[in-house]
Amino acid sequence: MNDFIDFLRRLAAHMGLTLADELVPPNEAGQCAMAANILAEINRFFFQRISTVPQGYVSQFHVFWEKYHERVLDPKVDIPSCLKVARVLESIYRENEVRVQLDPLDLSKEQVAQVRFFTAIQDFKLDIGKKGNPFEIYKRKPECFEPARLLKNELLVDTFLTLIGVESQRDKRKDWMLKSAQFLLTDYDGCAYAICQKHHGDAQAIRHALTVTEGYGFSKKKADMLLRDLADLAVWRYRSNADTIDVMSDANTMRIALRTGILRFRIPLLASYLDVYCYQYELADRKNTEAWRQVWIEWAKIAGNHRPPTPASVDYLIYRMGKLSCKRSSRKCPPEAPANRKKIESLLAQDQLLYDNEGYCIFKEICPMERKPLQPPKSISILGQTGWQSGLTNEGGGGGISS
């Protein structure tokens, strides 16, 4: 019970009050009764939909959290930290071109664009390269990338999905293929390479064209991946708005953003149980892309820099660093840069971030110790699954989320 009383004392202290000893029941029975009433109020505020809560909201907390989550969390993109990160990236890029590890073989730019267009829409919970190089698939089955033939023979779509390793949600993915094939035929004469030219090299206009209509399979993130890859592979050259192509925000890129300090919040982020309908998650997701874009902007201030063509161009390196080196537990933080840094940088460029069975973190020297425990948010609010919609309850108590 002492831990619970200490919890109450900390709450009181945050309000500038002191929980006097005489307010705490002297025996355990009285303390348990007090705890029951306090927990009932906490449960009521956070999780019960009482009569005064508007329709469509989970609880009083849900109403509060929707309105005030950003002001409570107070996110900031830290410019000095962004410049520090940019300097680290410059030290890598000046020696190595670290980019998406896709080998286009000897395909033409038109063929590369076609392959990446149709594989990008499927890049959802799927490692496109896991079953092999998608450009190899084009060499074996070019008909799987021809819009007119896909629309005439849907079996080609099934063949394509099998070749790239799709094992689930095939109906939805097949629909994406057919609709995006029709989109290419209708607006771009069936040629993905022509998309950039038709939109005059405006990256923002291209993204809008891909995402404005639902059903093609392009979310903003997948559109940015396509824009990034075709820039890195020198297939498309953008005349404007290349700065709007964002680093793909996920747990790995967010973890590094939080620990290096380019993205800061007032407090460590809340557990997903309190993030009703993912307001915190969506905020962190959006601010994370802003922070990495700011790194790219600050990078331009370094004399003679080797900054890549878009902010998203660093996504591959940051993602791999977060996945293989920047572990969840700060106790597993990898060692500082070894003496043979040039060799390590070369390995980074070749997608070999594991060195002597240990990760090597390029941000080790600029990552403050007090920030190493910070973790990115998680999302559990999935309608129809084990999210808040299925966890609604009322004054009767009980209810909640189940596995």
Question: Helices and strands in order, then pairings?
Answer:
Layout: H1 2-14, H2 28-47, H3 60-73, E1 76-77, H4 79-93, H5 109-120, H6 134-140, H7 147-152, H8 155-163, H9 170-188, H10 194-198, H11 203-211, H12 220-232, H13 251-260, E2 263-264, H14 279-299, H15 315-324, H16 341-349, E3 354-355, E4 358-359
Helix pairs in contact: 4-14, 5-12, 11-12, 13-15
Q: Main β-sheet, in a few words?
A: 2 strands, antiparallel
Gross morphology is: globular
Q: Report the sheet-strand fraction.
A: under 5%
Order of helices and strands: HHHEHHHHHHHHHHEHHHEE
Return the domain count.
3
Alpha-beta content class: mainly alpha
pLDDT < 50 stretches: 351-357
Q: How far apart are the termini?
A: 29 Å
Number of strands: 4
Mean pLDDT: 86
Written overview of the protein:
There is one protein chain. This protein is an all-alpha fold and 403 residues long. The chain folds into 3 domains: 1-47, no CATH class; 72-98 and 247-371, no CATH class; 109-232. Helix content is 48%, strand content 2%. Strands 1-2 form a two-stranded antiparallel ribbon. The chain has a two-stranded antiparallel ribbon with strand order 3-4. It is globular and about 80 Å long. The model is unreliable at 351-357 (pLDDT under 50).
Short description:
It is built from 16 helices and four strands. With 403 residues, it is mainly α.
